[in-house]
Amino acid sequence: MNIPSRVKLVDVGPRDGLQNEKQPVPAAVKIELVHRLQAAGLTEIEVTSFVSPKWVPQMADNDEVMAGIQRQSGVRYSVLTPNMTGFEAALKSKPDEIVVFGAASEAFSQRNINCSIAESIERFAPVVAAARAAGIFVRGAMSCTVGCPYEGEIAPERVGYLAALMKGIGVQHIGVADTIGVGTPLKVARAIEATLQHYGVDDVSGHFHDTYGQALANTLMALQLGVWQFDTSVAGLGGCPYAKGATGNVASEDVVFMLHGMGVETGIDLDLLVDAGAFISGFLERKPNSRAATAILNKRAA
Ligand code: HMG
Ligand code: MG
User: Fold this and answer.
1) How far is the C-alpha of 218 from the C-alpha of 69, rounded, in Å?
2) Which ligand is located closest to the Cα atom of residue 19?
């Protein structure tokens, strides 16, 4: 077995996690969450998205949140930018990295970003070129790489097709997302293998929602394929407004517990991460959606 000895986690809680919340979350709370995540040792945080506020009202305070963060050296702050309008708005807040997000499924592409896969690539191309010219790293996200809420199962060939298009326009790193958490390890492995036809393993990450409780198993499968970068969400927050019923990303706390238990380094302080999850869960008036966080909090209370 060839498990990487070090893993990088990108906490997407402030973006993927909070985008789906119906109740308003003040910018100050989002900023505090980012501060707590960086204090816990996260070296990359997906802070917000520059999308239409009509589509995703919760992210309308994107510029305020970015402006309010006290940046820590060694930490990268990434934001989603679906088009030039979003990129130009994002540029003012100086992200280290932008994310263009497409889908392996045509129906999801239409529902999520209001265009076909081919049109999305046409929209992303100038964004990628402008970002790279400005020295901003470009990550791509591929949604619905194993299953789609509208089209059902997605063949690995369609993942490979999208990965090739992303590579063709200069996207530097690509995320393989199981948007609705229906992936099981072999299906996820096939989606990753299709991606590895176009990107080196150091430029691929996993982004697994945990709707059906498969995300840790899928993470382990990806690790066995040599993938060492994952998007995870503190307290298991998350979901996509255009993927009804899908729950959050795999909880960062659960992934960190698994990795540390395997002797894999993350640079993350699990106790501080649990505190960050308890902070945002307290604000949202619910318990963290993380087994490891629950166990640690129960142990502390005992
Ligand atoms: P559209 O309506 O097709 O855009 O939306 P348009 O270019 O026709 O413009 C229409 C109006 O929107 C115009 O305003 C534009 O200025 C404005 P008006 O003239 O009517 O006043 N507009 C914008 N405003 C702010 N920021 C922008 C922007 N673009 C246009 N960037 C668009 C296309 C992509 C904007 C829209 O469909 C959208 O915002 N979708 C939201 C998608 C989203 O945020 N989804 C959730 C994140 S993706 C995700 O969660 C999946 C991921 O986690 C991986 C996984 O799990 O699968 C990444
Ligand atoms: Mg997601």
Assistant:
1) 32
2) 1
Asked if 266 and 20 touch (Cβ cutoff 8 Å), the reply is no
Instruction: Say if ligand 1 is within 6 A of residue 142 CB.
Output: no
Residue 246 has pLDDT above 90, yes or no: no
Q: 165 with 194: CB under 8 angstroms?
A: no
Write out pLDDT tens, residues 150-177: 999 999 999 999 999 999 999 999 999 9
> What are the structural domain ranges in the chain?
8-301
Residue 112 CB–ligand 1 contact under 6 Å: yes
Residue 133 structure tokens: 């010219």
The letter for the amino acid at 141 is A
Give residue 261 CA to ligand 1 midpoint distance, Å: 40
Nearest to 252 by CA among 221, 226, 281: 281
pLDDT per position as a tens digit, 59-117? 999 999 999 999 999 999 999 999 999 999 999 999 999 999 999 999 999 999 999 99
Q: Which positions are catalytic?
A: 240
Mutational test site, ligand 1, from 52, 120, 249, max ligand atoms within 8 Å of CB: 52
Please give the CATH superfamily to which domain 8-301 belongs.
Aldolase class I (3.20.20.70)
* Contact between residue 8 and residue 232 where contact means Cβ atoms under 8 Å apart: no
